[in-house]
Amino acid sequence: MKYVYEFGGNQTEGNSKMKELLGGKGANLAEMCLIGLPVPPGFTISTEACTHYYSNGKNEVLQLLRSEIQDAVKSLEQKTTKKYGDPKNPLLLSVRSGARASMPGMMDTVLNLGINDQVIEGLASDPVRQRMAWDSYRRFIHMYGDVVMGLKPQEQGEEDPFEEIIHRLKGDRGVKLDTELTVDDLKLLCQQYRSKIKERLGHEFPQDPWEQLESAITAVFDSWMGRRAIQYRKINNIPSDWGTAVNVQSMVFGNISDLSSTGVAFTRDPATGEKLFTGEYLINAQGEDVVAGIRTPMQITLEGSKRWAILADVTEDERKKTYPSLEEQMPEMYRQLFAAQNKLEQHYREMQDLEFTVEDQKLWILQTRTGKRTGMAMVKISVDMLDEGLIIEDEVIERNDPAKLDELLHPVFQKEAMAEAKELTRGLPASPGASSGQVVFFAEDAEEWANAGKQVILVRMETSPEDIQGMHSAQGILTSRGGMTSHAAVVARGMGKCGISGAGALHIDYRKRTMEVDGVNIKEGDWISLDGTTGIVYSGKLATVTVSIGGTFERLMKVCSKKAKLRVLANADTPVDAITARKFGAEGIGLCRTEHMFFQEGRIDLVRQMILSHDEAGRVRALDKLLPIQRKDFEEIFEAMKGLPVTIRLLDPPLHEFLPLDEVNERALAQQMGINYEEVLDKVTTLHEMNPMLGHRGCRLANTYPEISIMQSRAIIEAALNLKRRGVEVLPEIMIPLAGISREVIMQIDIIKKTAEEVFAETGERIDYKIGTMIEIPRAALVADRFAQHVDFFSFGTNDLTQMTYGYSRDDFGKFLPVYLSKGILKADPFTTIDQFGVGELVEIGTQRGRTAHPGLKVGVCGEHGGDPESIKFFHRTGLDYVSCSPYRVPIARLVSAQAAVAESRKMEKKNALP
Amino acid sequence: MKYVYEFGGNQTEGNSKMKELLGGKGANLAEMCLIGLPVPPGFTISTEACTHYYSNGKNEVLQLLRSEIQDAVKSLEQKTTKKYGDPKNPLLLSVRSGARASMPGMMDTVLNLGINDQVIEGLASDPVRQRMAWDSYRRFIHMYGDVVMGLKPQEQGEEDPFEEIIHRLKGDRGVKLDTELTVDDLKLLCQQYRSKIKERLGHEFPQDPWEQLESAITAVFDSWMGRRAIQYRKINNIPSDWGTAVNVQSMVFGNISDLSSTGVAFTRDPATGEKLFTGEYLINAQGEDVVAGIRTPMQITLEGSKRWAILADVTEDERKKTYPSLEEQMPEMYRQLFAAQNKLEQHYREMQDLEFTVEDQKLWILQTRTGKRTGMAMVKISVDMLDEGLIIEDEVIERNDPAKLDELLHPVFQKEAMAEAKELTRGLPASPGASSGQVVFFAEDAEEWANAGKQVILVRMETSPEDIQGMHSAQGILTSRGGMTSHAAVVARGMGKCGISGAGALHIDYRKRTMEVDGVNIKEGDWISLDGTTGIVYSGKLATVTVSIGGTFERLMKVCSKKAKLRVLANADTPVDAITARKFGAEGIGLCRTEHMFFQEGRIDLVRQMILSHDEAGRVRALDKLLPIQRKDFEEIFEAMKGLPVTIRLLDPPLHEFLPLDEVNERALAQQMGINYEEVLDKVTTLHEMNPMLGHRGCRLANTYPEISIMQSRAIIEAALNLKRRGVEVLPEIMIPLAGISREVIMQIDIIKKTAEEVFAETGERIDYKIGTMIEIPRAALVADRFAQHVDFFSFGTNDLTQMTYGYSRDDFGKFLPVYLSKGILKADPFTTIDQFGVGELVEIGTQRGRTAHPGLKVGVCGEHGGDPESIKFFHRTGLDYVSCSPYRVPIARLVSAQAAVAESRKMEKKNALP
Lengths: 915, 915
What we know:
Shape of chain A: elongated
Largest interface: A-B, 51 and 51 residues
Radius of gyration of chain A: 33 Å
Number of strands of chain A: 33
Largest sheet of chain A: 8 strands, mixed
Oligomer: homodimer
Distance between the termini of chain A: 28 Å
């Protein structure tokens, strides 16, 4: 078995396809050698060695690897014409980790291996290199002492022992920077470091270069199982049995003289995506200095340098003198570097993040990898590369990350503002975006303050449909209770408004109009800021920025729509929502909740009048007055969505949600209606429910009071006919909520059809419409075959389905969700990402039984999961026809839907490619 | 095709196995002829003729039947030596319906067919028979005019036209009884009846005997589709395509002279089941007179007569003179009758209800059928017949009706009291039994009043665990809300206490301590009575009786247990419940709800102390004090159930159920605990849940606060060891509630096992115990394979499973259940009888997946469905191991479980018997 793979010089054994074996870094180093780029030669010890290390232990692995490593070092000595451990012409090595997936900073590195008391003498014999030599020895002892020998702070809070020594020395010398220390100081440091190691660990810093090398290699293996690495893998779902490779490479130095330099570069601008080679460098420096921020790094390109100067307010003269670009300073090196980066991008067909060093006028490329980028850059680079013919459409789709895309659709806090932001508490990231405002505790205040031109954040224990207007007026919503699908969260996402829910540490006192968190008191009118993407609440006011999305975004969406199989509709309750949805490319409305219209001013009174009626006649009188209002709403929504389907769900919530919540408002209602307070109270008491989520709502209500469905069906059909008359194409779909028994659906269908026929008879005109049912009750999924034959479509309401399948109330779930997540009982919030085992099986069963009984049945999802990437992929696999999500999630859903389709076709290709 | 089947005389074509073709009555008439009993000859027109009638119409069927009927009448004339329509020696006929299943009184009958103006002359020519002849003619015109010709009241409330005429005549004559009318009066009646027919219907009463016969036959066919018949079939699930047969039989007369008589008899006492021939008769009377109650009927046997005399306070002399038994009055007839009834019972191997007539010293048996009986008689007769060798054990099981058995286990209102009872309102029959008491509206009052020796009925909108003590003290429980599995219903059934829930018409005013229903006001202290078997609430106090169940009941149960596959356990929370359960034959406890113990005095304070603790240490302190109390409870229960398994469920309800519900009690608690009221209020607010049914309870609580499970596990294991030490065999099983995710179960199992091992280590002793999980969340059923490998048993909690699968809150369901039942959306309350399609499929899936992953897994049910016959049959078919129900349902469950096993073996026999 072979464990060691050389790269560079005249022999390279790996390539970029061997990431599993050589890790990302090792594979790319080999690849760069293969395409002729100047890479310091070295070798990679494979991930299999790491796996072997963990199953058979250190000694056995070293025995196994020893001769291979020695051979590889020998080969390296030939390639570099230096000799490891030879004071005369010493070869120095770096030892770095390199896993299959990038785990930046999670594992250990040791540089400058091969120095000892003899080697240093040789290394430092060249006066030009003397300082570099001692600085390298000092750094080597520090890194080796820390990483390999394990000299670390003994208790929490203690300073790093090496740092402590250098701090003390700099204090004694009265200097601030390491670079201000003299060569003698560096020698002293080496001595002090080694004494500390001896004192603390009881043995000497090793002088044998081979011991140094072997111990450094096993230390890197050990760091694979370090605490940080384990945590990182857990978060990023990286299997622990992958193991890491180890890269042993000859050292090059950018800090020998002014003819040396070092830097990092991106093949395109990682912030904007612009096709512009960009990066920073430092003359006479080592890699870590560029990122350390002690000296101001300079721009690589002239154009970059000029742009920088404008921003940094530096004159052209000063720029040329003090901050020249590499392009000006080392034109030949720049020419080679530019050619190299161009070669890399063309070769990898992806934006690269690379590291280079110029050692004595010779360019070395030390590393290349796919460059990290902002959401905006992600979209632009992918679309530009498509135009450049570098990648195909499938790749454009694959290269966009839905989470990053989401960033583009909401404002974020300014970077500068964030630096000084003070975290107050945390809750669930209920609705993305960032906003600041003055705290108010009541929806009416939110409206009033907003009307007075103030920016407000509405803070509530939980919100209810009564708060809708206030939520509209607020910049953001913060609740101390509720989960990711609580009322506050759902409404905030629907409005595209930033929201945090379930911030449990918050204690709200409505009477005093204050809230308290960890001893901090916030009163009405105080400023706070919400980051709905992270769930963090900050005190004070923070500035926000909005990224503008332009033509490239549209381009991306078009590519997605071409590939996607799952159509993307939006949940939209108002004409404004509908327009937003259309703007984001929704292919229709998959859920229009009629009840939200009921809460608007002037309407709620009619609804209450209906509820307080003693008999059907009274209810019908109130409903007759609601009819023209509903009809007008529907006309506006139909108009906004012309040519696209609009699915209107009949009344869903229990009636008590429309009644006032306290005595003051109950009394006001009584007065307004001209009835006794007791009568109102009696109705409130009668309608009270212990578990409203499992109560008298949805079609249960409509089958008890058919007059409600009659009014709503009439409003829908009349609105559709009115528009048709004006030449607008209308595709109405009527949806029955909360059905669990086929008879419930049949009765509602009878009512809808009868009403429609009445309207057709009255007007002498007809229009096509569809009738469907929500599948949101576990039983409905199980008996879906009994439903399917009666309807045109199914729409899975996966919020309620999750509530009932798990037995979780989304309003109360926040009480134990954090515990469940922290104890690992739940891997994710099932209201955010669909549970594929329980809830998912019901979706599969419902779809399969529905389609068996009714071939061609349209099946979709209109729960919050419709906007969640993992869930969308599941729905694609399950063969659904569409998802419907909040307007602001539509682009993400379109992207993920396309990704799912691409993944499927890739899988098919692979399958077909098999012999 | 043959439609007419003769019986009697020298030719009988049917037998008792031909009920499908000849109906029950026709088949039995034929059978009696075959075994040599004296039956007036006749013929049966088959149910196929009825089916033909409904598919092809009257005329075609008559054409088809005419010659067969004429042949049959001719044969009848030969057998009786009379002639139909012949004035000299007229044959008179009766025409009666006779369906496959008994539909008493639902269809029509016409007697005395064949009389016309000529025939009456011949019939009345014998002076002895003159009155009988005219009375028969009068009756015939009345019945025929009503049933065949359709002369009925024209509008609601109008008197029957025939009754009106006879009433008028009796008024004119100043007499009260029909029998007081003279022969001339009867002649006048015939005339007036016929005039009325002519006047109202426009045509004459038919004189042609053949027209009479054909029309009477088709009238009986028509009555199969009468409104009453259709309703009856709907209620009793009788298919409408079965049709009815028609029995045409020669008339015999018990009212010719004192040498004639008529009566009804039972082969055993239908009230007590005693093996005692019993029945009533009247001399010189017609069948209907016996049941009409105008004359007091006399007892058939001497023993019966003597017993009757004692009850009726009649001296032996008077009895002999005025109310002699048939045995004394007509000893030869009695001898023949006794022999006949004996023959019938031996032949049918079942208690018979028979009708007979003595015409001029000749005995005729007119009908026999299985006799209706009380629950007590049902049990006794079946067990006695087993002992007599008449039937086998399977038949004993089949012949007992679970609903009737239930009657035996609860008190009922006295018949006499019921006659004057005033219905107040109706609710759901939540818990069977009958009781009266004074109304109280608060649980504390119930306790106080009961302690003061009063009988109380606790009336609440709904009950909560806080009310448990008050419910214990009450005679019965009445709630205005909630369904069959509401808290009140479940607890009442568990206590074997009569209860009515969801009496929606009731308006309770707690402040005024009154309730109002349909304008009637009831205040605290007023008497009401509840019939929990029917759901009817009566005003006032009604006397109750309790049927005593003795040895025969035990015998029945033993037979059942021999056959049953499904074991029957009981839900029992206290030692008292456990003793009751054992008394009723429970094979263990399938559900012991530990939280019920928490509400008892002295304990609730500790529970509240735990809840109000700020940290785990505080909770542990409170739990430490609860430990010995719980241990003692468990010891008592284990003791009561020694040798049988006891399944203890860990804490299930949410913590807020243990906190007070109003400010007064909250303040009291604060004072008692020595903390601020605000602190209590804060906890109450924090723990409040929007949907507690879907909230923080069950193992969700136990996984958040493991210390609760630790205390309970310790109490169980310590209690078991203590008893084992005393030589008591203990089989503890620990059950984890509300699991939906396998990790939830695994974590609880870890806690339980760790605690048990700790106790074992401390004591140096071990005991076997089992761990299981409830499957009550839809997801749990779907992922049952992931649970099964970790546990010893599953127990389906079908109450919660039904709640979540249907999305119904059992507390709120009462609001629309009545509407859903009346509109036919639901066929039955799914909390009473399991929904076999949705919930049932989850039980099947859970069982199958559980057993696949863990062969030998024990699977049972501990929801309310465990005591419901239809549900038990379903669980048997699904292959479950046991059901657990409230102690008072145990006998029913044992019976039904045996019935399911017998039904299965019968099915297997049938299958195996096929060629």
